[in-house]
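Class, look over these structure tokens:
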Amino acid sequence: MGTTRRQFLKLTLSVAGGATALALTDRHRGPLLAEAKMPPATPPSTRIGDMLYRTLGSTGEQVSVVGLGGHHIGRPNDEQEGIRLIRTAIDRGITFMDNSWDYHDGGSEIRMGKALRDGYRERVFLMTKIDGRTKQEAAKQIEDSLKRLQTDRIDLLQHHEVIRMEDPDRIFADGGAQEAVLQAQKAGKIRYIGFTGHKDPVVHLRMLEVAAKHHFRFDSVQMPLNVMDAHFRSFQHQVLPVLVKEHIGVLGMKSMGDKNIVDSGVVTPVECLHYAMTLPTSVVIAGIESMKILDQALDAVRTFEPMTTLHMAALLKRTAIAATDGRYEPFKTTEKFDSTARNPQWLG
């Protein structure tokens, strides 16, 4: 009954399979492609009201299945509107707060810090990111973020935009950013450590490899997971199985590619969210810059049931042609989303 594993593999990898195999090193090609035949199971969720909560990897932390994207809450011209969005999201069950030191020149963190006053801070799992690759620059950015967010601790700090093959080496070098992050963790300023990137799954695999060589295991990894990614330089096929195997928290982003994927005309916003939520994600971080988009994300959670194998296969078949050259995932194929490429001084 339904689609067999063999049929599913043919559908999901028919376009991306050749490119995926070429992208992987010989050392990774065999086991990763073997594990990518089927997406790992949707993780168990707990429903409280209209919100679903999942466990973040092996941390034991319960987080909302939808996270509030930090860049988008800095987009409304009116700061008070951004603050209202954050508080409304929390009041309606969203607990995972995404942010970054560089979003809107610190404006997103400042807004979030104001929004988290009056008891809201205790109700959320607060994440932000730093760009610094040196110990000195990373330490400065951590202190900046703490001040802007008006908190004495960040629940999850992530190395941001790990998009170049040399980034892992710089972060883990003597005098690199990881030293500052570990010192901040020891001081109680941060609780968990992760990294993010949107460019190529091979860079993510290298980051995990370099970390392992330094006897370090990340608590979370953030990456694009969407209906187009499955066909082109796929984080789903190449990185996701590794994270699941290692019990590392999966933070999905760019489920709609900042509207680019929806603009393809072959998939709806709710389908995008339901697909990403069906994968073994702890959180799907959504760009929310208006009450209408907040309602859309919350509706997707309220109506969510894990997609069947048949449904996922049909959706991937529908998106295969549009996804072939990555045009609807410009974060992979252009520098438009590479803020540290435009501002190399942030790296230190």
Remarks:
- DSSP finds 17 helices and eleven strands in the chain.
- The CA atoms of residues 53 and 180 lie 31 Å apart.
- The first helix runs from residue 5 to 13.
- The two ends are 56 Å apart (CA to CA).
